[in-house]
Design a protein that fits this description.
418 residues; alpha+beta; Adenine-n6-DNA-methyltransferase TaqI, Chain A, domain 2; 5-stranded mixed β-sheet; 14 helices
Length: 418
């Protein structure tokens, strides 16, 4: 039995959103939830059940815009800039103009439609073209075709995917708890580093740690980029322990350029990147690694430890972020201010004890990420099998008679709305 393919407009009313004038105070701080894309998780990170929003508007605000109050069960899909954030309205709400909102007909379940949009997100994103400001027009979305199983099969698919998605959410909750362990441990052992609440001796960072930079070998010499020496740049700084990099260079590239090879146990920090507007990436190296000019490597002088400084940056990122100079697109750390940062220096024995706890904590986080990847792979596999028809193939065979009757009724329903 082959599922029919239908246009989204055949199974849902597709509506937009709008923004009341910010100049009218009587339009804001009312009782009507007003959704923006920032209220939803990033694409692929989950389908949100939207019960509340950061901002709310008044009845006057709603009356002033060209948008309708959306009923519960509406599937909310961000269609501008960051395309593919997905939510399902649990309460009546309105959205801004960054959404295409799907009010499902009786032929499709809201959760099935949401999973369907998740599965086809990349394909839908391509409808936005290659312009700088990406937007998928509602007309293109209305014409986009999806498979439409009978309702009972939709329920079975949603039931299975919901179970897998619940595992993803539990894993994400566990990861969030794990992320809070390290700052809590640091504060317990050392107090607040911003105020030095335990009164430790203080020295400028540049007097307690050596700070070295790097560089980039010539891209025109292709042989430089065919080696085995890891070469780190900001794009590699997405982990606490750096054990490999996306690009590798030769030993000759190291000796022929401004890059620098730093040993295992070095503390790498991002010194120049747009991410510095809100995040201060830091990582401990597990390997010999060369670094580019947007990174700095820190080595302790005396008996201090890099693990301690890593913990300080993780527990109080506002301390190093206070040294960031913001540019139009790229931000960079002011080297003089960073070197002058007053760093509390607890006894070396306490720093070493923290280093032991840190290794344990990071090991737990790494194990959690590994489990998370397995759960994510399972979910993606199930999602693919769901929309290729494989997931419910045996169930379909066992319920063929009922499904055929449902499909006939479904066909009549679709004809009535066309």
């Amino acid at each position: 039995m082959k599922w029919p393919r239908v246009r989204l407009a055949d199974v849902a009313e597709v509506l937009g959103g709008s923004t009341p004038s910010r100049d009218r105070q009587d339009y804001w701080n009312g009782d009507i939830p007003w959704l923006t894309p920032t209220d939803l998780p990033m694409p692929g990170e989950g389908i949100a059940e939207v019960c509340d929003t950061t901002e709310r508007i008044t009845e006057a605000g709603l009356a002033a815009i060209s948008a309708s109050l959306l009923p519960p069960g509406t599937v909310l899909f961000s269609s501008r800039a960051t395309i593919g954030k997905i939510g399902i309205a649990a309460v009546p709400l309105v959205t801004n103009q960054g959404f295409a909102n799907f009010v499902p007909s009786k032929a499709i379940l809201p959760n099935f439609l949401a999973y369907c949009l998740l599965y086809y997100r990349e394909e839908i994103s391509h409808l936005a073209g290659t312009t700088t400001f990406k937007e998928v027009r509602r007309g293109a979305l209305k014409r986009f075709q999806i498979p439409l199983p009978p309702l009972s099969e939709q329920r079975r698919i949603v039931e299975i995917l919901d179970q897998a998605d619940a595992l993803r959410k539990k894993r994400a909750e566990a990861d969030a708890k794990a992320a809070r362990i390290l700052p809590a441990l640091f504060y317990k052992m050392f107090g607040d580093p911003a105020t030095n609440s335990k009164g430790w001796p203080v020295r400028p960072l540049g007097e307690a740690w050596q700070i070295v930079g790097g560089g980039t070998p010539s891209r025109t010499v292709q042989e430089f980029w065919r080696g085995s020496v890891p070469w780190a740049s900001p794009k590699d700084m997405k982990t606490e322990i750096l054990s490999d990099t996306e690009e590798h260079i030769t030993a000759e590239a190291v000796s022929s350029s401004a890059t620098r090879l730093v040993p295992p146990g070095s503390l790498l920090i991002v010194f120049r990147s747009g991410i510095l507007v809100h995040t201060f990436p830091a990582a401990l190296t597990a390997i010999d690694v060369a670094i580019n000019q947007d990174l700095k490597a820190l080595q302790p002088m005396g008996k201090n430890t890099n693990e301690y400084l890593f913990g300080l940056f993780a527990a109080a990122p506002t301390v190093p972020l206070a040294c960031v100079k913001k540019g139009a697109t790229v931000h960079n750390v002011d080297g003089a201010r960073f070197s002058s940062l007053p760093i509390p220096l607890p006894p070396a024995s306490l720093q070493r004890r923290f280093a032991e706890h840190l290794q344990t904590a990071l090991g737990v986080k790494a194990q959690g990420r590994s489990v998370g990847r397995q759960i994510e792979d399972l979910f993606r596999t199930l999602l693919h099998r769901a929309f290729t028809g494989e997931l419910t193939a045996r169930w379909r065979e066992a319920h063929m008679k009922e499904l055929l009757a449902e499909m006939e009724a479904q066909s009549k329903l679709l004809e009535a709305v066309r």
